[in-house]
Amino acid sequence: LKKLWQDFAYTxxxxxxxxxxxxxxxxxEQKAEDGQLVVFTDSHTPHIGYKACGLSVGADxxxxxxxxxxVLFNVPTTTKITFAGKLKKGVMLRDVAMHILGLELxxxxxxxxxxxxxxxxxxxxxxxxxxxxxxxxxxxxVVCYQPDLDAQxxxxxxxxxxxxxxxxxxxxxxxxxxxxxxxxRKNPEVKIDKVWIGSCVGGSxxxxxRALGFLQDxxxxxxxxxxxxxxxxxxxIGILKKYGEWIEKNQRQVKLLxxxxxxxxxxxxxxxxxxxxxxxxxxxxxxxRNAVGSKIYLASSMTCAKAAMVxxxx
Length: 314
Prior knowledge:
Number of helices: 9
Shape: globular
Helix content: 25-40%
Strand content: 15-25%
Mean pLDDT: 95
Order of helices and strands: HHEEHEHEHEEEEHEHEHEEEH
């Protein structure tokens, strides 16, 4: 199959990206230009929404787009989400994304984010918010930098950032979100086997840098294995340069994996095995996506780093 893809790419003068060069969405980020319409056969194509409009399509539609540069789709209604206030210390964009997944939102709309300057983050980091469109039962998601005063919305929601706390999503669905402190208080002994920091929404250089920066003067809990899987080749190189010595020093419990989807799709060395419990920055924790009897809790990279330190969800 790989040979077939390579031959097709070379025949049509296309770039071919092999295993280890990054998650597909991270590669698209590097290639897409502002304002473009991007179609791809993956449900997380809205990931690109901070700079372009990403739509998930079927194989037939993608083939038509390749040949005719056109695709037919129904324009969805729009849900306006406006941010107000300021995030508390220690709260990350992944926590904001999980907070949104816990809201009652209209289905099959386009999520349109306003007031993103309140988040005080780099533009690329906003992909964490646009990526969750499908989990929020939406068609796509975009960031609005220049509001249209005549725009019509099926729903308008304002989120006070100061009310958001670190969050966690319980197995077996990313929508089963809880406040981390509340969950830890009611479930103080949820011990973990693995921590995995990676995926298109959790494996950026920034995510890994914050987690590893926190762990520099700390020890990984006994019996816990920490896997680091950057979502792009530049992120992999950056982490290797900055933290390579620390990773090698702690190689019995810490491993840096190649830039790929990995455990997010239940593949690779970092994936959970039967009966294991893992805290992860993956996009999903659905039943059947991983080993029988395993449990995956979703959280931010900082929550994952703290779990690796104490050996349980805390």
